[in-house]
Amino acid sequence: MSSIPTHSSFSALNAIPLDSIYNLKELFAADKHEEKVILGSGVYRDDNSRPWVLPTVEKAEEAVNKAQDSGRYEYLPITGYAPFHTAARDLLFGPLGEKVTRVVSVHTLAGTGANSLGARFLKEALKPSAVWLSDPTWVNHYNIWELVGVEIKKYPYWNASKRGLDFEKLIDQLETEAVPGDVIVLHACAHNPTGVDPTKEQWKIIADLCEKKGLFPFFDCAYLGFASGNLDEDAWAVRYFESRGTLEIAVAQSFSKNMGLYGERLGAFHLLTASADAASKAKGHLSRLQRGQVSTPPTRAARIAATILTTPELFQSWLLDLQEMSSRIKNMRQLLRDALVSLGTPGNWDHITTQIGMFSYTGLTPEQVAIIQADSHVYLLNSGRVSIAGLTTKNIKYIAEAIDAAVRKSQS
Ligand code: LMR
């Protein structure tokens, strides 16, 4: 007769709710309504609500398939596929000349892997008293830094009444409360979830502050080329911090959105240091951390991305794909704003078109979000964040009417 243990060592665990973005996907999957729409996770969809394999990725897949040899499933070096992470570094920083000796790049499991590797490394190397995260930020930033065990502090970012950046408060708080050695996580472009970025002038003031206070800037760069359709524009903040020559910086770079390689988990962590010696020591530490967690990263997507980044015709073709995605998103922003204005939906909706990137932080309240979900089967995050990529010319009217009805109902 089989028996079971009388007691579980795990029953005393506290219950942890599922991540809000993934929980929404489960609720959506369980909903049987015909017109249901999900505007949760930041994933690109075409105008038929279908995932889009970038035409350039398809061409690169062919090239990679042809070139595959018996070594294609071999282990990569611990820091990953060098043709990929060097091309990723050059894409991000532009030509660095002799400064490349001061940069360490590691191929990671997407942006999350890069954020996590960076957090573990910075905790060990800098022993920060705190990490500063924007309020709000991507939900997983909290998770990543909590798991690493560094105290999390929030710097003001979103001003709900202005529906824009709370720049003065951001500077004031960091000025008065941050201490040397603290890490500050910055979104390189297309801030997630608000879609609001600092202006170039404001970035300069943030860089001054980092320098003056000895804060360590750690950029999360998930939307390079995807935000504006222009790589140089989207890389501006990172390149500006680098070009000052006075700051050491780290960057977590993702290829999930800009190459549509979501499930392939492709990213890179870059650390720009003050000397080649520091870079070489940091490389040793990063390699140990990587070895202890994944040993070496997977190969296939890195080969695809390296092929795109280093083949001029494919690179040009990828720029067109980026244009296609970013302009469809801009178009959807315009249509949603115009639809709400023509419905006379109470409130001002101009921020939908001034925000950039994958998301709009609509200003819808949790109560309105709940009404939209219950009455119209449209799923968005409680924070009011909408993934604009989920809008299409076919569903936009339905979504605008759902928002309109919920805003009116909550005010009645
Ligand atoms: C998002 O914010 O929706 C995306 O970055 C997907 C994710 O992993 O959370």
From TrEMBL:
<comment type="similarity">
    <text>Belongs to the class-I pyridoxal-phosphate-dependent aminotransferase family.</text>
</comment>
<keyword id="KW-0663">Pyridoxal phosphate</keyword>
<dbReference type="InterPro" id="IPR015421">
    <property type="entry name" value="PyrdxlP-dep_Trfase_major"/>
</dbReference>
<dbReference type="InterPro" id="IPR004839">
    <property type="entry name" value="Aminotransferase_I/II_large"/>
</dbReference>
<dbReference type="InterPro" id="IPR015424">
    <property type="entry name" value="PyrdxlP-dep_Trfase"/>
</dbReference>
<feature type="domain" description="Aminotransferase class I/classII large">
    <location>
        <begin position="35"/>
        <end position="403"/>
    </location>
</feature>
<protein>
    <recommendedName>
        <fullName>Aspartate aminotransferase</fullName>
        <ecNumber>2.6.1.1</ecNumber>
    </recommendedName>
</protein>
<dbReference type="Pfam" id="PF00155">
    <property type="entry name" value="Aminotran_1_2"/>
</dbReference>
<dbReference type="InterPro" id="IPR004838">
    <property type="entry name" value="NHTrfase_class1_PyrdxlP-BS"/>
</dbReference>
<comment type="subunit">
    <text>Homodimer.</text>
</comment>
<keyword id="KW-0032">Aminotransferase</keyword>
<keyword id="KW-0808">Transferase</keyword>
<dbReference type="InterPro" id="IPR015422">
    <property type="entry name" value="PyrdxlP-dep_Trfase_small"/>
</dbReference>
<dbReference type="InterPro" id="IPR000796">
    <property type="entry name" value="Asp_trans"/>
</dbReference>
